[in-house]
Write a structure and sequence with these properties.
Largest sheet: 10 strands, antiparallel
Structural class: alpha+beta
Number of domains: 6
Strand content: 25-35%
Helix content: 25-40%
Strand order of the largest sheet: 19-26-27-28-29-38-35-34-31-32
CATH class of the largest domain: Alpha Beta
Oligomer: single chain
Distance between the termini: 44 Å
Shape: elongated
Number of helices: 19
Length: 1031
């Protein structure tokens, strides 16, 4: 997608390289494509329109003489035709004057030559006695010394066709666009022997191979000739703010493997990450790229130097982009030009700015028709060939990105040039895209999480049950998930057909990952000795078998199919996170009528716990009941067996409890559970005490009991607020001005759903307009977080007359002098909480001082599929839904179930703890029902546990080319760390070789990985990533 401008209001600049950057926005110029300029104009009556293909000149001028200026003006006014010698001379004279201005030491020698040449042409034209072609050749001979200096400058013209995956069109049209573009490039190579073509995205090569094998053979031939440059180190040009860290690693891994398998390219062949139209770039990306063999970065939007308030002429297009871990890539910011450029004399306009900022006289110029494919044309190539022959002009080279970057890298090294360094993220642009088309956002997060979990389950199935590892099946799922991250699909800036195709791919992935996890976990459960948990013979009905077929699998959960044991119900509860968890377990039991107060749970240690019935229902001919109970220290990437049975729980339970207390007026019912309550309700466990008020529509008090500190400010925590954006253009991309706001759950109907002992839940219900809202607020015994479950039937529609309806969850805190932190791919970032919309992954945090107190207090907000956040000094806003109206007029209508949570804390934010909480919230416990049976596996076991608090597991999988295990880790607190990971001998035998690798699973020469006994150790730099192969 290319639109002429980001159309964003400039923000105050933040800190310089290496400093904490404030919130900034950039204004990015786009392509010269008239169709997109027209789209931008149609989309917004208020937006600034394109100001022409050519920005203002940027070099510092040494004023030419009045005579030279007059002669230049006279020649410029002469009419010579688009491709005439006279037009050539106009361009040469213009460049020569600017070259003289850029090199004032030569002005004394050159200006007389310029005056002489200009007068010769001007006088000849006035006399009309000599042909213009002759006049120009004679003038160019006069300017020969200037021409020699001009040839010291180079313009590397790289032909490219930007092909958007399903932006404003369907998948069949994307395939057709790719086919026709590639066919055209092949034909042009026959006509223009010097033509070189550069193309990114393995997705377009993959589809060409699949749908057009004869054309694929032609493309392969052109690649073999060295005329078709592969610039694809990523599956697609994907979003770099909303993608998780592990899938960013997989883009590099699977793209390189595809190119190696199908084209024979070495892994190191493609050194560039081509992201010309991506809407932002997270700060950890250079570190990820460096570990995947990428050392170059090309982009167009969300521009680093321009974020410092620089104009296009003041910024350096070429700079070092430094990641949080200190890794650097050589970045080229093409925002002044764009990536769909024409070939013409205007290409020289930023040559002297490049020289000023870098010392280099080489410019990269991306030309060709793009967005809907197309690529270079005969017009482009003829112009380039012609301009290459101009004697008083820079060298115009039909080139490649590799030729350009190799040349500048060599010169930087040889001359010891110091380029500017940008040590920060490259953001922000199109903030509406953090939320638009929420179903795609859900598909992205769910798809990423399921694939990571499925690989863990597949390893367990292989190691313990002899199941074949489904490498091909998993690779295809990763490829579909990577495709969905294209920068017009994941951001939600496509048409309805874009969404339909994306959700179809997502469902195909869910079908695969659901069955893979289900079969592996059920097979493992059959090995567990559940008989050891059952005291003697158990009698009772055995009618559960077959109940719940496919239940909970709608969005890819492991089916809760009943196993049908007699008298009791064994479950194996899996924790797929790499750390121990204290958490509430919910199990679904079929065709058994457990009653609250008459159900209990046994664990492997012989403890008998009370079970709490939290739900009853019917599902396709079977009845069910859901029983909740606490699990303490559930082992990381491990399991524990439990048995649910009828019977009275212990009279004095050892486990902590949560209580509910109605406040205010008495409740004149037989019990308050299920009854409508008019006054606030207090829910309390050993850590927190919260008050929920139906009049306010949320939590009006949240006390951290250890310090008797209330984190609520003047507002409410968890308030659901509907806002209205004023009408504006590009509504999927842009956030509009808020013109109306309503707290939709104020004066809501409130009832208590659960009253403990393990979980307490209060529901708020209200209608607003055509939409219906039910918010459940829950606190579990022993928990330090409050969970929210919002079920909304959203029937709000945006349109050009009324604007864009938007739904947010607001959290008002009692803080000042606050700092904000959010999770990004494989790391975190701090920024100034100025209320602007920013992207985050699993969590954000706001920490500051409370009024009248010296101690710090903070609030962490978790989510499982939302990305847009607006944070000010006293408030966190989590953006849930936006009913934009273009290009998809009806993106959000229907029912949405939205989960989020909050965790108040004392003191500064603990990024390690927040990361673990966010990971756990996104990877729920999985309970698998089984039978009563003997087994070789114990009732509790683990496969892998990360023992170092500030280190998180990114992925655990089988190696691509060996019967070995890959462990990927990252550091979250900015400390060089020796990570320690306990690895089960069944997963990797003690004594198996260990080696640190890159992301492509190739061994590193300077490996820091070791293993002593069952503990793996590897050194991670601050905010760094490490990949280790065991076996």
């Amino acid at each position: 997608m290319c639109l002429w401008r980001a159309l964003a209001t400039a923000r105050p600049p933040g800190g310089g390289p290496g400093q904490l950057a404030g919130r900034r926005r950039s204004t990015c110029s786009g392509s010269s494509d008239a169709a997109h300029a027209g789209l931008a104009a149609r989309s917004s009556n208020n937006s600034p329109q394109p100001d022409g293909h050519r920005p203002r000149r940027v070099e510092t001028h040494v004023s030419a003489s009045a005579e030279l200026q007059a002669l230049q003006a006279a020649i410029s006014a002469a009419q010579g035709g688009a491709h005439s010698a006279l037009e050539r001379f106009k361009a040469e004279l213009d460049f020569a004057v600017r070259l003289m201005n850029a090199q004032p030491d030569n002005s004394a020698a050159w200006e007389p030559l310029l005056v002489q040449a200009a007068r010769h042409v001007a006088d000849g034209l006035a006399a009309a006695g000599t042909a213009p072609d002759t006049l120009v050749r004679e003038a160019e001979a006069i300017l020969a010394p200037v021409g020699e200096a001009a040839k010291q400058y180079e313009i590397h013209c790289c032909g490219h066709a930007h092909i958007d995956m399903n932006w404003m069109w369907s998948w069949p049209e994307t395939v057709a666009v790719t086919h026709d573009t590639f066919s055209t490039m092949d034909k042009l190579m026959d006509e223009f022997p010097a033509f070189r073509f550069s193309q990114s995205q393995v997705s377009v090569y993959d589809l060409t191979q699949k749908y057009a094998p004869p054309l694929w053979e032609r493309v392969k031939q052109r690649i073999a000739e060295g005329r078709w440059e592969i610039t694809a180190s990523q599956w697609v040009e994907g979003d770099k703010n909303l993608a998780g860290g592990e899938i960013l690693c997989r883009h590099l891994l699977y793209t390189r493997r595809w190119l190696h398998e199908h084209l024979g390219l070495p892994y190191e062949a493609v050194k560039i990450d081509w992201e010309c139209d991506t809407f932002g770039h997270c700060w950890t990306l250079p570190g990820i790229l460096a570990r995947g063999g990428v050392s170059r970065y090309y982009h167009h939007r969300a521009n680093g130097p321009r974020l410092q308030g620089m104009s296009s002429g003041e910024m350096s297009q070429l700079f070092w982009w430094e990641g949080k871990d200190g890794s650097r890539v050589l970045a080229y910011d093409d925002s002044p030009n764009g990536y769909n450029c024409e070939i013409g004399p205007h290409m020289t306009r930023l040559l002297f700015a490049m020289e000023k900022h870098t010392g280099l006289r080489k410019l990269l110029w991306i030309y060709g028709v793009g967005d809907h494919g197309g690529g270079p044309t005969r017009r482009h190539l003829r112009a380039a060939v012609d301009m290459a022959s101009w004697p008083v002009f820079p060298q115009v080279l039909l080139s490649t990105t590799d030729a350009y970057f190799s040349a500048v890298e060599r010169e930087i090294a040889e001359r010891g040039l110091e380029l500017p360094v940008h040590s920060d993220e490259l953001n922000y642009v199109f903030e509406g895209c953090y939320t638009s088309e929420s179903r795609i956002k859900f598909a992205n997060r769910k798809g990423e999480n399921d694939l990571v979990d499925t690989e863990v389950c597949a390893l367990a199935g292989k190691l313990f049950c002899g199941q074949p590892y489904p490498r091909k099946q998993l690779t295809e799922c990763w490829e579909r998930s990577m495709f969905l991250q294209f920068h017009d699909i994941l951001p939600g800036s496509g048409v309805k057909e874009t969404v339909e195709h994306a959700m179809g791919l997502f469902q195909e992935n869910l079908a695969n990952t659901t069955i893979l996890r289900t079969r592996a976990l059920r097979a493992c459960a059959e090995l567990v000795d559940t008989q050891a948990l059952v005291p003697g013979d158990v009698a009772g009905p055995d009618l559960g078998l077959g109940g719940g077929a496919g239940n909970d699998a709608w969005w890819g959960g492991v089916s809760t199919l009943g196993a049908g044991p007699a008298g009791c119900d064994p479950f194996v509860v899996y924790n797929l996170a790499p750390f121990a968890r204290d958490e509430l377990v919910r199990v679904k039991i079929w065709n058994r009528d457990y009653q609250d107060g008459h159900v209990r749970v046994r664990d492997p240690q012989g403890n008998v716990l009370a079970g709490q019935v939290v739900e009853r229902g019917d599902y396709w001919g079977h009845r069910f009941v859901v029983v909740a109970f606490p699990a303490q220290a559930l082992p990381g990437i491990g399991f524990r067996a439990f048995v649910v049975e009828p019977g009275a729980p212990p009279t004095e339970p050892d486990t902590p409890a949560v209580t509910v207390k109605p406040l205010g007026r008495p409740v004149y019912t037989l019990g308050y559970v299920g009854a409508q309550l008019l006054d606030p309700v207090a829910i309390e466990n050993e850590h927190l005490r919260i008050i929920i008020d139906p009049e306010a529509g949320g939590i009006t008090s949240c006390e951290i009991k250890a310090a008797e500190t209330d984190v609520v400010g003047e507002g409410v925590l968890g308030a659901i607020v509907r806002e209205q954006e004023a009408p504006h253009g590009m509504t999927a991309w842009q956030l509009g001005t808020i013109v109306d706001r309503k707290w939709v759950l104020r004066n809501s109907v409130m009832r208590v759903v659960h009253a403990g002992p393990h979980v307490a839940t209060v529901e708020l219900h209200a209608r607003d307009g055509d939409s219906d809202y039910r918010l459940r607020i829950s606190l579990a015994a022993g928990a330090r977080q409050v969970d929210f479950d919002l079920d909304v039937n959203w029937l709000e529609r945006g349109d050009p007359a009324t604007g864009v309806p938007m739904l947010r969850a607001w959290f008002s805190t009692d803080t000042w002098n606050s700092r904000a932190t959010r999770e990004i791919a494989c790391g975190t970032i701090d920024w100034e909480p100025d209320g602007a919309e920013v992207p985050a992954l699993n969590w954000v945090d706001l920490t500051g001082f409370t009024m009248g107190e010296d101690a710090e207090v903070g609030l962490t907000v978790l989510n499982d599929c939302k990305y847009g956040h607006s944070i000010s000094e006293e408030e966190i806003k989590l953006t849930l839904l936006r009913s934009s109206y273009d290009p998809d007029p009806l993106p959000e209508l229907g029912r949405h179930n939205i989960r989020f949570a909050m965790a108040p804390h004392l003191g500064p934010v603990d990024c390690s703890e927040a990361t673990r909480m966010g990971h756990a919230f996104n990877h729920p416990l999985v309970a698998v029902g089984t039978t009563v049976h003997e087994g070789d596996a114990p009732t509790e076991s683990a496969m892998l546990t990360v023992q170092t608090p500030n280190v998180m597991l990114s992925g655990l999988k089988q190696a691509e080319d060996a019967d070995a295990v890959i462990v990927r880790l990252y550091e979250v607190e900015g400390r060089e760390t020796e990570a320690q990971v306990w690895v089960c001998p069944d997963l990797a035998p003690v004594g198996a070789p260990v080696v640190e690798t890159d992301l492509l699973e190739q061994p590193l020469e300077n490996s820091t990985a070791t293993r002593e006994g069952e503990v793996l150790s590897v050194t991670l730099p601050p905010y760094g990533i490490a990949t280790v192969r065991i076996g």
